[in-house]
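Here's my example:
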Amino acid sequence: MSISLKPMMLSGKEVLPLIEGGKGVAVSNGESSGAWAAAGGIGTFSAVNADSMDAEGNITRTVYEGRSRKARFEELVEQAIKGGISQARIAHECAAGEGRIHANILWEMGGAERVLHGVLEGAKGLIHGVTCGAGMPFRLAPVAAQYQVYYYPIISSARAFRALWLRSYRKVPEWLGGVVYEDPWLAGGHNGLSNSEDPLQPADPYPRVAELRKTMNEFGLAETPIVMAGGVWFLREWADWLDNPEIGPITFQFGTRTLLTQESPISEKWKQRLLQLKKGDIRLNQFSPTGFYSSAVYNQFLHELYDRADREIAFVDHPAGDHSEPFSFGVRNKQVFVTRHDHKLADEWMADGFSKALPTPDSTLIFVSPGKAQEIREDQLNCMGCLSQCKFSNWAANEAGTTGRKADPRSFCIQKTLQEIAHGADPSSHLMFAGHAAYRFAEDPFYANGFIPTAKQLVERIMTGD
């Protein structure tokens, strides 16, 4: 089935309505986004702790010297600004005047607004738009307007956009380039599931996007494009969305599919793993220290987190009801009380080598090996404040430098694992974000015999409907 995609005015230029998703830490960079823009679409580099480059074009990894979290946080912000500017310049050069270049940030990352100001100031004229999600980015609009770039909030419901519009965006509508609907059940990385939505019951995106369009029309935004993100593979499967008055102007974002191009910076091991995925290999889980749901490949990394969660029991400080059995843990042998059943489980886990009991903020204990306990503790101590609030380390970007809650050992250091996988570490032992359509690499004949296209070849293929 052929698809007739018409160029569209986006971020001040007529381009193909195909957008590269701006993936995580260093996973979409200047080269990948510049190549996508050169093919006529919108390339998006990740400005989330982006890689800085030396004079020879080599990546310079950040080595944190600060003795305190706040000192390391300042180093992180400084590096993030340098890296974002560096990747914007590379993208600009690679695009050679074609397409558009966007930067992607997470509103809940540490120092998000400072980083955005720094990158846009240092890369003036090189960035045409900013996509931003993971939270409610009310301040996105005035920052984008200050630098005269278009802004593209990432939302997962009409209700979220309504709140953003009424509180902030209505004041600077001229720089609203589009609204990204990121499907919370289909997209990779962090997802915007609300407390009222069932993670196990995916909703059809069509009525949700139609509702978003209806809301936008109420605000006089009938001509403002919606960007469909999450689950997009073959455009022929979305043919009924084109020239559809219920949907209005529509563009499509490709996040997972753009992982597998010649210009994609991910490792060869990661690319080969993508080619082998099967349906069901992607898990929507709630382990992220952000508190958001996220979608990632089920591998050794996720398996260990699920196992850790299975070895959890509740305790109380004083005997109460069934919690009558004393149990001691920690270097000070703190005594708490658990049920008889849970005490038996704890004895079995400790006999199996999971001999370290770690308390959580919810008055529970999890049981891990001594090696894992040491790793958790070291990662918490080495926190550099990559999130505005972190469940795992209890860091918060406030005067106190803390969320006020205990650090949660059921989570993990997201900066550490994303940096490692982005720079060549074994993808089976680190957090491997991917959208739920990633299994289609193995089924799509385009990738037969391990074929990995250039960004230009992928854009040309997508334009055929496949």
